[in-house]
Amino acid sequence: MLNINDSGKIWLRGSVRPEYGVRVGDNYFVVGEGDSQSTIYSIYENHLFVVLHYSEKKRIYRRFSLDLIPKSKGTLFNGFNETKHADIKAITYQDDGVEEHVGGEKDCFLDKNGEVDPIKIIELAGWG
């Protein structure tokens, strides 16, 4: 079973600032956190789920297939305590194949452990 192994900032080539990302196995994902008040991650089946909560009572749900091929060149910037500094290729939230759904604050579905429930997000977003 895959887990989120590490997190930190990734400086993508051509960007004006680093962006928040996570490492799952050997792949890096730039999640597009921006000004999110909080970000929650979950791995379900063959996908990384990202929930971004914004102050204006808006949530953005993103689903990254773990089979996507990284294309964006970058460098690990800071954070990533479990990963050696390196030049990498990443999958970004703007890549083809990354799904996104915008919901309201009431659209936060938690399971019995207080974690985001990916099955309810799939139903909400129509990703079935």
Distance N to C terminus: 21 Å
Radius of gyration: 14 Å
| Arrangement of strands in the largest sheet | 1-2-3-8-7
Strand % is: over 45%
How many structural domains? 1
Q: Helix/strand-derived class?
A: mainly beta
SSE ordering = EEEEEEEEEH
Instruction: List the uncertain runs.
Output: none
What's the shape?
globular
Number of helices: 1
- Could you tell me the number of beta strands? 9
Mean pLDDT value: 90
- Helicity, as a percent range: under 10%
Described by strand count, sense and barrel closure, the largest sheet is: 5 strands, mixed, barrel
Describe the structure.
The protein has one helix spanning 118-125; strands at residues 4-12, 19-24, 27-30, 38-44, 47-54, 58-65, 72-79, 87-92, 99-104. With 128 residues, it is mainly beta. The chain has one domain. The longest helix is centred in the last third of the chain and has 8 residues, at 118-125. The chain is globular and about 40 Å long. The mean pLDDT is 90.
Please describe the topology of this protein:
Elements: E1 4-12, E2 19-24, E3 27-30, E4 38-44, E5 47-54, E6 58-65, E7 72-79, E8 87-92, E9 99-104, H1 118-125
Parallel strand pairs: 3-8
Antiparallel strand pairs: 1-2, 1-7, 2-3, 4-5, 5-6, 6-9, 7-8
Short descriptors:
128 residues, mainly beta, five-stranded mixed beta barrel, four-stranded antiparallel β-sheet, 1 helix, 9 strands
